[in-house]
Amino acid sequence: MSDVRLLTSSFDPAEELRAFTAALPMAGGIVSFLGQVREGGGIEALELRHYDPLTLPAMEGLAARVRVRWQLDGLLVIHRSGVLVPREPIVLVAAAARHRRDAFAAADFAMDHLKSESWFWKREKVGGEWRWIEPRAQDFEDIGRWR
Amino acid sequence: MKVKLVFLGRLEEQAGYGFADISPDSPLDWPGLVEHLGSELAGAVGSEKVKVALNGALVADKYAITVNDGDEIAFLPPVSGG
What we know:
The complex is a heterodimer of chains A (147) and B (82).
Chain A: E1 2-7, H1 13-22, E2 29-36, E3 43-50, H2 52-69, E4 74-80, E5 82-84, E6 89-97, H3 100-117, E7 120-126, E8 129-132, H4 137-144
Parallel strand pairs in A: 1-4
Antiparallel strand pairs in A: 2-6, 3-5, 3-7, 4-6, 7-8
Helix pairs in contact in A: 2-3, 3-4
Chain B: E1 3-7, H1 10-15, E2 19-22, H2 30-34, H3 39-46, E3 51-54, E4 57-58, E5 72-76
Parallel strand pairs in B: 1-5
Antiparallel strand pairs in B: 1-2, 3-4, 3-5
């Protein structure tokens, strides 16, 4: 079971994880990653833009690649689009497997690829001014680990 | 004919709009397409780092593109998700 969603309004990560886990009683290990808008640095808001024809289909394609690479009982990928405020959740990935190693690796791989290969453009508002965020070199190094 | 242009990320800011319709007389190749943009924007979309989607599908070689009536062209700068 893969559950892949692109959301334009806020979500409750705890409730999503509860429902995901409840549906997978046979999974021995569930690893999750939650990314949220960090507070501080004068950041007033974060905006994620996407392009409908590409963004969700590519997220689904990524989920399919993860499922081929690791033996999972379930995979959850939720990514926000739109304007977010500090402490709001941006992304939730959870991987459920019989054994923890597959679950850790699958969630790690999914996050690295969401960060550097998914069709999202991000800008932040500081002091009333929006500025686009460029991809970081670290993101490309992270994804290079899987090649 | 009518062609829809879509600018994502910082290209939207450079263009000053996210969408635009152009009405060329005939199908366009890449040089013909960028002629419809301002020189600054033409330079930006010409960068190797900017990818192009034609009708929602990523184009392998944007410089070899042909744009026809009713097409939607999206200009995609480097992504920054998560």
